[in-house]
Amino acid sequence: MRVLIIEPRKCPHVAEIDGSLKSMQEIVGGHIEAICPFADKVAIVCDEESKLKSDTEWNRLIPECNDVIKGTFFICGVDGAEFTDLSPELAEKYRNYFRYPPIRIDENGSIHVID
């Protein structure tokens, strides 16, 4: 399954995964949670408990759902309740969308949105 992986402080990159629950959990570092804040048929798959983990880095702001994702997450296609390959066009769209992290964490751990 083709996905776009977004890691904290890194540019997004396309990867092929086998699509198993185990492979998805390994990428996000825990139990998976899917959110679909965009009009496109894509899901953000992240660790459902990442915000409770003090050792997980803040990653990206998702203004569409007024939230911030912690830790590594990936984007994949969706078809009903199934995860699918992310098309090359959508991979490029979301690679550009998430290219630069729009948040900064200061030395006190406070989150600042960069305009």
What does this structure look like?
This is DUF3846 domain-containing protein. It comes from Ruminococcus callidus ATCC 27760. Residues 1-98 form the DUF3846 domain. The protein contains two helices and ten strands, in the order E-E-H-E-E-E-E-E-E-H-E-E. The protein has 115 residues and is α+β, with helices and mostly antiparallel strands. The strands form three sheets. Strands 1, 2, 3, 4, 7 and 8 form a six-stranded antiparallel sheet that branches. Strands 5-6 form a two-stranded antiparallel ribbon. A two-stranded antiparallel ribbon has the order 9-10. The chain has one domain. It has helices spanning 21-28, 88-97, and strands at 2-6, 13-16, 32-35, 42-47, 58-62, 67-70, 73-79, 82-84, 103-105, 111-113. The termini are far apart. The model has no long low-confidence stretch (mean pLDDT 89).
